[in-house]
Amino acid sequence: MYTQALNTAETDDRGLEDAAKAAQFQARIDAEERIEPNDWMPAAYRKTLTRQISQHAHSEIVGMLPEGNWITRAPTLRRKAALLAKVQDECGHGLYLYAAAETLGASREELVDAMLAGKAKYSSIFNYPTLTWADIGTIGWLVDGAAIMNQIPLCRCSYGPYARAMIRVCKEESFHQRQGYEIMLTLCRGSDEQKAMAQDALNRWWWPVLMMFGPPDATSQHSDTSTRWKIKRFSNDELRQKFVDATVPQAQYLGLTIPDPGMIQDAEGHWRYSEIDWAEFKQVLAGNGPCNRDRMAARRKAHEDGAWVREAAAAYAAKRTQRQTAQAAE
Amino acid sequence: MATANIEVSETPLVLYALRRADDALILGHRLSEWCGHAPMLEEDMALSNIALDLIGQARELYSYAAKAEGGDNDEDKLAYLRDVRQYRNLLLVEQPNGDFAQTLVRQFFYSAFADLYWRAMMTSRDTTLAAIAAKSEKESAYHLRHASEWLIRLGDGTDESHARAQAAIDHLWAFTGEMFAVDDGARGLIHAGIAVDPGPLRGRWLQTITDVVSEATLVLPQNDWMQQGGRAGRHSEHLGHLLSELQSIQRTFPGLTW
């Protein structure tokens, strides 16, 4: 695999991380230079990025499940094709991201195994169920909207492969978000039943979507070093506020009510939301969300049911190489 | 009441377009069931891609059927408001996904036919059908390549994959004859140069199938009994379940815009 061609051995030896190299590295970051796979990097930088990129990849893949739940039931052929294409895009994002993680020396197989073993995380939002068609609109509008808010700054992330992957991912996500909003608009201009369906979906997704930005700044574990390394450019709370400010007028345009009676607009125009239920967030992260078990079971089943197919492809490739070698020897 | 099945006046041309549209939709729907559950991410992508091609073909063919019918029907009414007895697809395409081998063999049998069929249809005197055929042929050629390469890997892979691939061939073989059947309505269109006769394509189809199956170290069944009925709306029990899922929103909330 091409990851083996990269200089990972040297950086895995932490003894070589001398102060001079670290200072030089930080100077490059401060000068807004991009770090590339073969460049020297601190082991902790590599570890942080591998964790973040692989979690991002896992989220794309697990994220196929809640929306995939409606592909076979999409209400029109146009919606069916658009949803299928969207979920396929997410799979593509997962693939780019695993490839980006591979440039750090971690193989897709080991990353996927860690996820299936429950050792690696994915975004908590995908542990909520999609109960009606309006959930598909809401996910596009809010979940993809929140993802874009998180990912636009990542297009300037200090690690080159991740930043470049994010540019393409963001373009597609922004298309998905418009598609989701258009589903909501159609529902909100539709019958009373459809409007109620849209409001109900917003009610269920709003708070979990706000949790997507991660714990409040005061308690966030990773932010300081990530900020210094320019992996992260805005804090969780800053991004969350940006998202809320962008979303409230969109909800108003739809004629929907944000399920936060305590929300007020402050003098500067920011929409101040009420306290988020972080106990729920912790429960979902701990595996107790409504769908954690279902999501993991679905991914494990796909992996286990597909094992014989992957083995067949590998066995065939080995046989072919053997035949070619035998032919060349003749 | 809006939930009731629509009526379709099945002139030979309408019926012709509906049959092909139903083939494409039902097979596309089946493939879309894999999305998120395939053996590897690359296959989640590939099977979704093929499904998207087929759903795209279905939409064009339904729209053409609706236009040929000249009434109030449109692509969505035709897809969502006909019941199992009104569907005209081949029995082959409604067969459940089963394991990956069954899905691939189903795709292989169908794509090997569709590739030849759409290529022949490019000379149809009906310019819309000729245009749909030109696009579908390009797509089918890729679908056939994908399915053939997989069948070879599965057949010549491990003992398990070989056994699964052979079981899939044995199971699905009886559904292949229907692809080449022609009824009276279709015969008129064939005489008029609008449709092509699939019968004479069977020789070349069998050649493709035989070549790939033999490279895959697999064998074709000796049993030549062929199931029929899909074209006339006599389906397997599987289709009703598929349609109840596909049509659930339109049946639950009749007459709305989505």
From TrEMBL, chain A:
GO terms for biological process: phenylacetate catabolic process. InterPro entries: Aromatic_CoA_ox/epox (IPR052703), Ferritin-like (IPR012347), Ferritin-like_SF (IPR009078), PaaA (IPR011881), PaaA_PaaC (IPR007814). One of its GO terms (molecular function) is phenylacetyl-CoA 1,2-epoxidase activity. One of its GO terms (cellular component) is cytosol. Pfam families: PaaA_PaaC. This is Phenylacetate-CoA oxygenase. It comes from Bradyrhizobium nanningense.
Automatic annotation (TrEMBL), chain B:
One of its GO terms (biological process) is phenylacetate catabolic process. Gene3D superfamilies: 1.20.1260.10. GO terms for cellular component: cytosol. NCBIfam families: PA_CoA_Oxy3. This is Phenylacetic acid degradation protein. It comes from Bradyrhizobium nanningense.
